[in-house]
Amino acid sequence: MGSKNKLKRFNENETFDNVIQPTREEMTTAFEWKGKWAAFFKNDNPITLELGCGKGEYTIDLARKYPNRNFIGVDIKGARFWRGAKTAIEEGLTNVAFLRTQIELVEYAFGKHEIDEIWITFPDPQIKYKRTKHRMTNPEFLSKYKNILVEGGFINLKTDSEFMHGYTLGGLLQGLGEDIVFAHHDIYTHTEAPEEVVRTQTFYEKQYLEQGKAITYLKFRLR
Ligand SMILES: C[S@@+](CC[C@H](N)C(=O)[O-])C[C@H]1O[C@@H](n2cnc3c(N)ncnc32)[C@H](O)[C@@H]1O
Q1: Which of 40, 81, 135, 160 could form a disulfide with 126 if both were Cys (CB 3.0 to 4.6 A apart)?
Q2: Per the residue annotation, which of 116, 124, 179, 186 is the catalytic one?
Q3: What domains sit in the chain, N to C, each tagged with a CATH number?
């Protein structure tokens, strides 16, 4: 995307009511919506997060399907989620928001048990050992998710990366005795894959599918 186009999207994001872009300082001092997302949405419907949402395909698709739930896409790249924010406005989806922040800061953005469910869609697998701390399902991230999730809240991980799938499933969850509800290494060949897992395809996912890659899916909850 050209820098002119990006700038146009950044400027448009500033005018969107469904886009929130705090500075790091605003986020880490007293972020106005932490623990108060019900006031943002003007209802106390359960909230689902899409972390590393990119253009926000899951946020939008689930919001269309579940008007009585709220959905927040989180990403550091505003020019990407501009697409989802614009679609939500065009379609009058009032149960959608996009938050521009680092996923590392989720505990500053959301109160304890404020979130009902999390989707992590095609995160960078961060394969190199030195990058472990940036891997979005490492124990530090999982502990943050646990704090903001309701007890028993589901986490969904959809990825083309066998490494990420195996690391999360075998490396962490099984060892910790966590509750794995669904796990499959190639969901489009699975006859009983949950509908929303095979119905919605993200921007990155479409590229991986074109390359003939298998798509993995994990649904779990933390004890
Ligand atoms: C590979 S892309 C996937 C995007 C989208 N979910 C999809 O499937 O098309 C990963 C996304 O995560 C975002 N991201 C990576 N690390 C992040 C972090 N620490 N905080 C916020 N966003 C992050 C990137 O900006 C990017 O949009």
Answers
A1: 135
A2: 124
A3: 3-221 (3.40.50.150)
